[in-house]
Structures are given as C-alpha cells and as structure tokens.
Amino acid sequence: MNSVVCITHVPDTESRIKIADGRKVDETGIKFIVSPYDEFALEEAIRVKEKSGGDVTVVTFGPDRAQQALREALARGATKAVHIKGESGDADSLGIAKVLAAAIKSLSHDLVFLGKQGVGQDNGLVGPMLAELLGYPQVNVVTHLEVGDGKLTAHREIEAAEEVLEAPLPAVVTAQKGLNEPRYASLKGIMAAKKVAIDTKTPADLGLDDADIYKQRVVTLSLELPAEKSGGRKVDGGDPNAAAQEIMKYIKEQAKAL
Amino acid sequence: MPGVLVFTEIKDGKLKKASREALSIGRKLAEAAGGDLVAFATEAAAAADAGKYGATKVYVAELGHYSTEPYTAALEQVVKDVQPAIVLFAGTSDGRDVAPRLAARLNVGVASDVDRLEWTDGKLRGRRPVYSGKAFATVEVTGTPAIATTRPNAFPPEETGGGAAEVVSVTASAENRVKMVETKEPEAGEISLAEADIIVSGGRGLKEATNFSYIRDLAHAIGGAVGASRATVDAGWIDHQHQVGQTGRVVSPNLYIAAGVSGAIQHLAGMSSSKHIIAINKDPEAPIFRVADLGIVGDLFQILPVLTEEVKKAKAH
To answer: What is the pTM of this model?
Structure first.
C-alpha cells in the first residue's frame, strides 16, 4: 500500500503575524512548521505503511525552506520525498493543486493524504481540488480511517456529527485533528532522514506552464491586521451572586441574547 | 440573466440558517451585478424558503443524502445552463466539500470563508480571515463564475417577502463512488459550533474533564454550543469538535462566554470577532480580558452555577 502525503510549511501557530508591503506576511523571525493538519495526514500514512508495507512519499510545493518540512517528515517515517520548487505563496489553491496533481501522477500510490486545510491561509480547498484533478473520490475532514481490500472506510466530521463513508482506492483523504496522535521524530529517524535524497523538480519539469500555475484566480489585494480591541469593563467577581447579576444584565441589555 | 446561484441545504424541511445567510448576501450581489438570484437545492421543499429570501428559481436535483460527486455533477449542469456570474456556498461541511471540487472542474478559484462580499467593477471581492483571524485578506476572484464560500453568522439573513421560487428540475448523472454507511448523530441538544449564536467555552481553569459539566449546563440552559480551548482538547477532556481557535474552529457568534480560558493567541484569533464577549477568569492579567467586553475576575466554579440558574429563571418567564 503506497501513500503520497502532500505537506505544506506554515508559520508556527504561536507566531504573531506582521504584514509586509500590505499584502504578505512578513517572514522575518517567523518559525516555520509542518502545517498541523498535515502532521495528522503524515502520521496516518506512516501507520498504513507499518501495517501493510509500501512507501510513504511526501510531496511539497514551495520555496527552498520547504525542504525542512520534507526532512522533518522523513525523520518521522516517510520513505521518499519530492520537492517541487516554486513560490507557492504566489499561486492560488488551484495552482497548488495542479502542481501536486502533476507530481502525484508520476508516483506509485493507492492513497493520497493531506491536511483538511493549511494552517495560515486556511482555505481548505486543495484536497477536493486535487481529488477532482486526479479523478479520485474524496473523503474530507477525516477523524478515523481504516484501509484494506482496495477500499477505505472513513469517519467524516460534519456539523456536530459524523458520517461513516466507504470509498474505493485510490482516493484522496484530508485529515482532521483527532485522526491520530502524531509521533515525534526519533534521533535514529533524524539521522536516517539525512541520507535520503530529496527529488527536486520545477513545475516546468512536470510539464506545467508557470503562467497557468501562477495565474491567480483569487488575488490577494491587501492584508490587514484586525482592529485592536481595547478590552471592556473588568469587574471583581468576589461575590458570585453580584457577578451573575452583572453578566445577566450584559446578556439582556447589550447582547440581547435572552 | 441570472447573476447569482446559491447552493442551499435543507434540514427538517427548512433551509439551513447558513443557506438563508448565503441567499441574503447573494440577493444583494445579484442586485449590484444586475441579475437574478437563483438557488440550487436537492429537495423541492426548498422553493418556499428560497423565495422568501429573494430567489426567483430553484434548480432541484433530487439526489438524496449529500455525496461529493453526484452533487458536483448536478451543480456543473446548472452552472452550464444558467451561466451565473457568481456561485455562493454557505461554509457548511457540505458546502466546503463541494465548492472546491466544482471550482477545479470549471478551472476557477474560490474565495473561501469570506465574511464580507461585494461586487466592484464587475468583480467579486471578499474579505476573509487568515491565520485564523490574526489577519484579514481582501481578495478578488477573477474567473467566471466567481465562487465563494460564506462564513456562518457573518451575513444577516433578510427575508424579502417573495413568494415561492419556481422549481426547475435538474437531471445529471455521475457515478457515486463514496458510499454512506451510517451517520452518527450528535447527542440531543448539541449545537454545532460553526452556526451557534451563543457559545460557552471552557479552558484549563476547569481543572479536570468532568468539570466541563459547568460549561455544558450553562450552554444547554442558554441554548448555546459548547466550546473549548486547545489545552483542554489536547488533554483529552473534550472532543476536538468543540475546539475554538487555530487548529479548531474560527467562530463569530453573537455572544461568547469564556470561563477559565486564559486566552492563548491562537484562541483569541479564533473568537475575538464575536460580537459580545464575556470572560470569567481568576487571573486579572489573563489575556482573554483584552478582548472581553465584560470581564469578571472571579471563580468560575462559584459563578457559573448561579448564572445557569439565573438563565433558567429568565428563560422560564
């Protein structure tokens, strides 16, 4: 059972965001991490490999720094890595999906995993777009997965409930938090990862046209920080009855929620 | 000429609130773009509600329970027939599943999770939170149709008083490769975080898993959803479905009550666009107070039970 895991490299969730040129995130001093949802995707693929054998190939589209994400994935248990070099930040979700689809077509695979969204841009578009471009069924926002016998059974999270779905392979699965508990890289894994050669290509090597990949169908015109909230009234809640009354008054008069 | 097509969903014979919100902003965009508002639905029962929110026609494909590929095929058919300038999806689980699939098929982009939308110079422009609300991006969609998914609770539903929309039946066939085995329904009284008007959230200040009962009791009494900080989810006190913030859900209810939540940056980003925020915390320096409209420095274990009783009393009247 061979899996491909698409990963992306994003600012650490604890980062404070600063804006450069009014359009982009200022990357100075920002620590980049494997996007948290992609970690669940990777872990699941490694578990499939541990159970049924095969390869776990991690693929990323991004600038040079994205190689760190691939090394991290290899250290955790991925067996191969492909880096499609490019300014993924200048491509929209469909452009990214096109690059990933082209890369995946040349790799042996039964399953394609990725996070349900990249933490940061938070679009949540690439998974279904990739499934469409590959012509595969998709199961989105998965919290539980079983694979075997040419098919998968997955739990898909929906509004305050879950669906249990069955799909034939190959298929695209997007991971939700709760799917598993991602492992840390072991020292042995880190050493082994250093020996794996990362297959580096450009979109042009995959037969893609930069004009199509970087044709922004969704253009970011500006990026702004939210207005600072100054904080409202702070009162002492030493007396629980008085505190409850204070809250009730606010709920009724300000929020008009009762 | 139809300007805007809105994907709508029905629950218990009525349009979901998120669909009514999408229709309402869709109607404004249709007026600005100079076209009609039409809807897509999978049950003819949508016609009456869709009409109330300004749709002139509803294209009905009787497909039954949601599945990506048949829904995509039917939507593709309607887009070809109707040639809308804009296609909107409410940002529900199904809306977010089908919109990107359709977009890839049509070779167009999607502005996802927008909380503002306008038609400017013949283009669809939207505002969307990025970094789970730490920043906001203004985006423009260049393709035709321009597709967007709308953030629940961001667009107020507005009835226009129109009669039932005309039903146009749609047939499209596509192999359905993903089979539904079963749906695991939520516990009675559970409200989904995304669409909730009121959210009561608990944090590490609850001290242990069983104390989430303080949060649930108030949430049930007031008719709200249960939220949680990442720390409590990571500790296994509550299911991830309840997590607010980055790697959880970005929410903007009318009222957000945070108890024992200190306010980590990734939590604040996910809830600070709520209209009214009340925070209860023992630590007067807790960052949550920076975004709270009303901050109570006190003991949640003493305050919440009294508050829950007060809410019950108020509801009984």
So the answer is: 0.92
Chain A residues in contact with B243 by the CB 8 A cut-off are: 177
Contact A95, B68 (CB under 8 A): no
Q: Which residues fall within 8 angstroms of residue B106, CB to CB, at 6 or more apart?
A: B76, B79, B143, B145, B147
Is B248 in contact with A231 (Cβ distance < 8 A)?
no
pLDDT of residue B188: 60
Helix (H, G, I), strand (E, B) or coil at A187: helix
Q: What angle do CA B41, B42, B43 make, to 5 degrees?
A: 95
Of B185, B194, B255, the CB nearest to A251: B255
Work out the minimum CA distance from A136 to partner chain B, whole angstroms.
9
| Rounded Cα gap, residues B132 and B243, in angstroms | 13
CB atoms within 10 A of CB A207: 9
Tokens standing for residue B310: 């007060």
Residues B178, A165: C-beta atoms closer than 8 Å? yes
What is d(CA A234, CA A236) in angstroms, rounded to the nearest whole number?
Answer: 7
Cβ-contact B124, B148 below 8 angstroms = yes
Q: What is the residue type of B274?
A: S
Strands (E), A22-120: 24-25, 32-34, 56-62, 80-85, 111-115
C-alpha distance from A75 to closest chain B C-alpha (Å): 23
**Which secondary-structure segment (H or E) carries A103?**
helix A93-105
CA gap A247, A241 in Å, rounded: 10
* DSSP secondary structure letter of residue A34: E
Q: How many Å apart are CA A37 and CA A141, to the nearest integer?
A: 10
Summary count for chain A: helices (H), strands (E): 7, 15
Query: Is the CA virtual torsion B129, B134, B138, B139 positive or negative?
Result: negative
What was the ipTM of the complex prediction?
Answer: 0.94
Q: pLDDT means per 10 residues in chain A (258 residues)?
A: 97 88 89 96 98 97 96 97 96 98 97 95 96 98 95 93 96 96 94 95 97 96 86 91 96 92
**Cα of A168 to nearest chain B Cα, Å:** 7
Residue A69, phi then psi, degrees to nearest 5: -65, -40
Contact B5, B35 (CB under 8 A): no
Q: How many distinct helices (H) and strands (E) make up chain B? A: 8, 18
Measured between alpha carbons, how far is A13 from B153 in angstroms, rounded to an integer? 25
**Over the stretch B161-217, which tens digit does the pLDDT of each residue have?**
889 999 999 998 888 999 999 998 766 667 888 889 999 999 999 999 999 999 999
Token pair of B152 as six digits: 């629940």
CB–CB contact A128 B181 (8 Å): no
Q: Do A124 and B314 touch (CB under 8 A)?
A: no
Place of tokens 């929906």: A158
